[in-house]
């Protein structure tokens, strides 16, 4: 019996380290970004944040441009052949002008963005220094994010990023828990 309990305890610790951010932390992070006008405010309807959905490259560019306080022109110069003249173009091109992304023939705006790509963009947007420079950019950004305590747990860094991931990591770069002007979300607000 003790052996079984030890195994269960070990498995629960492993599970916790992989999914260390609670849903409340994810929503708090989204609410914090909304309070800074980086994303749309859905604090009164948290499910609208769609925290468990993948995030597209175009959606990520809008958040990154906002977080970096980039000057976003209200036009589209069609710098990428696959980027339509829609709401996302101006954010993609602002990121290009800021050297956050590289000039290529295509951008793949509707593809999902990976966790490692998001980390690289966050480091650039928040002007964070990488702590490692081994020549393997993925490992360098991931290890730097661990070092700065922006991430924790074991995750496959080539998988698509969920919306909650970008919310949590960006909020941590602002040290939102110590922001005295920010009120954390609580389930109690929904209780009548």
What attributes does this structure have?
192 residues, mainly alpha, 0% strand, disordered C terminus
How would you characterize this protein structure?
This protein has a domain at 54-113. The protein has 7 helices and no strands. It has helices at residues 2-18, 23-35, 57-67, 89-97, 115-125, 137-147, 163-173. It is globular and about 40 Å long.
Share of helix among residues?
40-55%
Describe the biggest sheet? none
Please tell me how large the radius of gyration is: 18 Å
Low-confidence stretches: 1-19, 184-192
Summarize the structure.
By secondary structure, this protein is mostly helical.
Topology:
Blueprint: H1 2-18, H2 23-35, H3 57-67, H4 89-97, H5 115-125, H6 137-147, H7 163-173
Helix pairs in contact: 2-7, 3-4, 3-5, 5-6, 5-7
């Amino acid at each position: 019996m003790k052996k079984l309990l030890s195994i269960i305890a070990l498995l629960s610790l492993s599970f916790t380290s992989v999914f260390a951010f609670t849903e409340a932390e994810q929503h708090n992070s989204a609410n914090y970004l909304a309070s800074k006008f980086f994303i749309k405010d859905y604090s009164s309807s948290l499910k609208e944040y769609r925290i468990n959905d993948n995030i597209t490259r175009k959606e990520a560019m809008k958040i990154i441009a906002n977080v970096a306080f980039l000057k976003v022109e209200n036009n589209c110069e069609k710098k990428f052949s696959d980027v339509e003249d829609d709401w996302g173009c101006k954010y993609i091109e602002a990121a290009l002008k800021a050297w956050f992304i590289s000039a290529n023939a295509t951008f793949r705006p509707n593809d999902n963005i990976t966790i490692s790509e998001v980390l690289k963009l966050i480091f650039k947007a928040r002007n964070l220094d990488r702590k490692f420079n081994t020549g393997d950019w993925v490992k360098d950004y991931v290890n730097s994010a661990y070092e700065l305590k922006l991430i924790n747990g074991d995750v496959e860094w080539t998988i698509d990023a969920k919306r909650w991931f970008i919310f949590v990591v960006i909020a941590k770069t602002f040290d939102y828990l110590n922001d005295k002007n920010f009120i954390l979300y609580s389930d109690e607000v929904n209780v009548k």
